[in-house]
Amino acid sequence: MCTANLIVTNHEAQSFPSCSLAKDDSEAYKDHCKPQRLEFDRVLCDVPCSGDGTLRKSHDLWRKCMGNEFHLLQVNIAMRGIALLKVGGRMVYSTCSMNPVENEVVVAELLRRTGSSVELLDVSNELRELVRRPGLSTWKVNDRGSWFQTYEDVPDSRKNIILPSMFPSRTSIHEGHTVYNSFDVNSEYNVPFSRNFNIGDTNNVNCDTGGISNSNSVQSLGSKFPLHRCMRIVPHDEDGGAFFIAVIHKLSPLNENQVIKVRKTENLLSTNRTVKLQEQCQHRIVSEALDDKKLLDGQNKLSVANQTSKDDNRIEVKVVSDDVEYSQTESGDRSHRMDKLDYQHKWKGIDPVLFFKDEAVIKNIVSFFGIEESFSLEGHLVTRSTDNARRMYYVSKSVRDILELNVQVGEQIKIASLGVKMFERHRSKDGCSCAYRLSYEGLSLLFPYMRKRILHASPVDFQHLLQYRTINFACFADARFGEEASSLMPGCCVVVLREGCQVADSIAKDPSPIAIVCWRGKATMNVLVSPADRKELLEYRFGFKAFKVEDEKSNKEIDALAEGSL
Ligand SMILES: C[S@@+](CC[C@H](N)C(=O)[O-])C[C@H]1O[C@@H](n2cnc3c(N)ncnc32)[C@H](O)[C@@H]1O
Q: What backbone phi and psi angles, to 5 degrees, belong to 555?
């Protein structure tokens, strides 16, 4: 992923976990040095939608979908976004649909539900070059070809599908939100076609009003919210697709009645489980990395690890955690949800993230690569539980804080991937004194803090390394580079394109040094960079077009190169 500051999850957004240690809001907002609750400065809800804004390229959509079916999911996802947003934070709600039921209707419902806790921002002065039109304040709802102006018009048989919240005139159930008299913000609005739109402008000769006249009575049924602050990007303005954007600002915490009902559930994962896995992982690493230890010592460790492993199988510490219940969308029942949890339990991405805490191994890495103190590895390296610390990922302080919080709340966030891969374990037979090699992915982050294991190659040798991957020391064009390489201790190193030798054009584009991860073997220098990355370097840096990407086996070869078997 190439960034230490990222966690990827694939939760359903409407039930994204709360991760809170705070009993109430006052605690959550106290100035703790560590976060007490997972909250976001910014949230982007680019929600699932009918996609009718892409009609120009997907003609079939016209016949297939209405969009009404997405309404509740969209509301629930956005409500969850607001709940997880920091006070003072902003959330963008967007769709690639033109249907008000997926757009203004959702925004109006959010404003209704959250009362004075949020405001819809006027962003007309931002991104001025973006050609946009104001949001609608009146519309009709289409259901199977029939158009409805109010909920009362909907036949009883469809009242469970077409909801009151889909109509502009629904009254607010919350006090405190500024109420706007209905007004026609759409007088300049001119769309060539429309399905659920009922635009209150008789000048819109192209507007499909669905058989209902644009009378003043429609105006009086307009939304009371300032929905004109939403942005509509329409296909014919800039010869593209349609898009809808609303920016919401959180003013105060939501209260309990505002949609979110917290209920207690059992989480199959637990803090204890992770702590045990953590210990187990450390034992394995110690016993593998320090292979000069006595066998007996190793056996003792193994038996501890086995014991822990057996214990793990039995552990089902039931941790009570927050779960969110949705009043409108809850279609699945409780048992279904638990089945789902069981299923997720087996899912690979659920593997706990473990902090790598083995000080001896970390010290060894720091000393081998000469990593400066200002770049601290301690507390920033994580592994996955099934990986047995084969790969170590570097994470930023903010990610570390979230991981610690997540463990404390019983691992409610299921993490698919995170951080940047920085070190990989190798089993070289070359007599390398460090059990880990660098990963090319993490090189740009670490390189400025590295003081050892760096060689500088001429452009010709650098290019040859990229092209041929393995070069005998004696075969380098620059004999001095060959000597330097052969006098380096075996193991992982970094080869930098010699300063002053970079291609002028590429320096202008990116002045950072051009460096690759290599392995100093017995008699050869081997490049530990994937074919795709080598291709990119050759093409982008050297303008070398003829490079052919090798087949997939090459990644395995990289491991083999580092393990001395090639
Ligand atoms: C409009 S697309 C987002 C596109 C994305 N912003 C991008 O640039 O690639 C909506 C995405 O939401 C995903 N999705 C559908 N249901 C979801 C849910 N309940 N929670 C989270 N994501 C969901 C869909 O798979 C789809 O990828």
A: -65, -35
